[in-house]
Amino acid sequence: MFDTPLTTAFPFFTEEHELFRRAVRRFVREQVEPVADAWEEAGQVPRELLRRMGELGFLGIRYPAEHGGSGMDTLATAVLAEELGRSSYGGFAVTVLVHTDMASPHLWHAGTPAQQARYLPDIIAGRKICAVAMTEADAGSDLQGMRTTARRDGDGWVLDGRKMFITNGVHGDLYFVAAKTGAPGRGRDISMFIVEKGTPGFSVARPLKKHGWLSSDTAELMFDQCRLPADALLGQENMGFYALVKNLQNERIVLGAQAMGEAARAIELALDWVTQRKAFGATLWDKQALRHKLAWRASQVEAVRALVYTTAWRDAQGQQVSREVSMIKALAGTLVNEVLYDCVQVHGGMGYMRECAIERMARDARVQAIGGGATEVMLEEVAKRMV
Where are the chain's structural domains? Predict the structure, then answer.
């Protein structure tokens, strides 16, 4: 299922997109799926695997050739996210996607030519892994509740505060950090800063243990009188709020595509199970209730995939898609959880066992309705654009 060539299913895809999809799927099948259980135990994706992805051109598909990228579009981003989601290892998928589509775009959109020349080649090659430090314990979807501050000190900056739930936080090399830089009461006066690992005053406060996404390292970060040079400022002072909001559009397309890749793969695994498992003298597939359950979920996944890809195409055309990306995040985050609930159910007791991929995928899916914008927040964003 879900294997119709992109160029057949959607007229705006090119053969280049389809070839890229096949290349990523082959890589996942050969170099991820056979060994990724060990990454779940280790709590991280090996750096050599990420460097290999850089060598294959998977980490810079939206960046220009002058920096080592492929110069592709939002559709290619959605293809990458869906195929990584299909790996069935959500922690691996998000490790890569934070690097490619949630952190490094801040450098591309707002960085000076000197900053881009310094960092982008290593990011694209997988030699430096990056993270975006936006969320805090008391400020997730509400960016204006941020408490981390940065103040001018001589010809540089001093950063103070803590960040929470930061993917790639433990083993990252480069962090794009959001901090308040305006006067008290000016909630949107946020600026972005480039912080390198090893900067004095910056430390990993603690690695975090999670319900799912076990192979992605996640951390709380601490900035204690962290001194940064003047050129650590990324973009314009006090304009970081708008940079964060802008990149959340891309992030929500990516998370929606990843979720649909996970849902599609779960349905395929469930089909394999119900067509072989026998009960009461017949296979589970012979039970109409189960057939219809999976048919209904497959129909929903195809519908949301179409919204994801159409929105990605519109974004690539420069169209405004703020409403649609919020719809995607709400729909995909909810649907992947519903699909995995049903897939665990049709697996019966085996679906509750750690040795079953569906059990892991169900744990991984839960955060899709939270991270990148909780479903309730997304629905409010849609509602604001309805009148």
Answer: 6-129, 131-238, 241-384
